Amino acid sequence: xxxxxxxxxxxxxxxxxxxxxxxxxxxxxxxxxxxxxxxxxxxxxxxxxxxxxxxxxxxxxxxxxxxxxxxxxxxxxxxxxxxxxxxxxxxxxxxxxxxxxxxxxxxxxxxxxxxxxxxxxxxxxxxxxxxxxxxxxxxxxxxxxxxxxxxxxxx
Length: 155
Prior knowledge:
Blueprint: H1 5-17, H2 29-34, E1 38-40, H3 51-57, E2 62-69, E3 72-79, H4 90-127, E4 134-136, E5 146-148
Antiparallel strand pairs: 1-2, 2-3, 4-5
Helix pairs in contact: 1-3
């Protein structure tokens, strides 16, 4: 949308003005049910789309793919080729899906690392930082921290 920021704002407003719910009336509900990407053509004839968004974006076709974390859909990514003036195909769908699979893995990993850091802080707090306790943050930027227990506890 860098070619026309005003148009990008119009598309954003269309989505905000008429928010939709994944209740089975939208095609994207299939993404959640099947955990599979979609290729959507022939938009003019379809009733199960967010019509205000489709009309304001002037898209001819689009692909949508799930972002999966922890075994469930946590988001979607949609793409079209409006500026290239072409319809999308199965290769576009599959490429977007591969990207979303990687994105889901990154989100899951980042969240896991955040949780490990939180647990490390909590363990340090519970240990009181007393003699014999050490939490080594040097391994993998802290992701694989070693906890050394006081003498005699590791037997």
